[in-house]
Amino acid sequence: MAQLTNTDKWMFINKTPSTTASYVRVGEGVTGITPANNPITDTKHYVNHQNPTTKVLGTAKQFALAMERYVGDDANDFIAGLAEKIGTDLVTDIVIVDHYSTELVTAKPARKYSVTVIVNNEGSIVGGGAADMDVSIHVNGDPVEGTFNETTSAFTEAE
Rounded to an integer, what distance in angstroms lies between the CA atom of residue 91 and that of residue 99? Predict the structure, then answer.
């Protein structure tokens, strides 16, 4: 049994969503990736019970990124380039890789998500500080289970 750390789960983003996928690791300048499941619930209070019953119907998963602007990093440049864009220009996919897994580097367990990337703030200008960005990544639909090859940056869907 081992405690997971910040380097045990990796996020890759597809920087070429309109062509063949080209996944790059999200990391340089990113100080935090916070997932939120945002459960969609249905609560009923039946007349024969003292307390209500809640069922989880689904999730509206999001990832919040706290990051600094680093020019020259592929993932950072791609995300920053989405500022002020709208519609399908913001849709791509990400892959979350269980890097801690003992599986081979060429077949790490992973989940691929179709996402909409929203740049809420493209870089705060504060005296003496880095240009901090605030980014929300909203999941579209269901994840796809599979494996990720960290050598070739390729996702393979599970059969």
Answer: 25
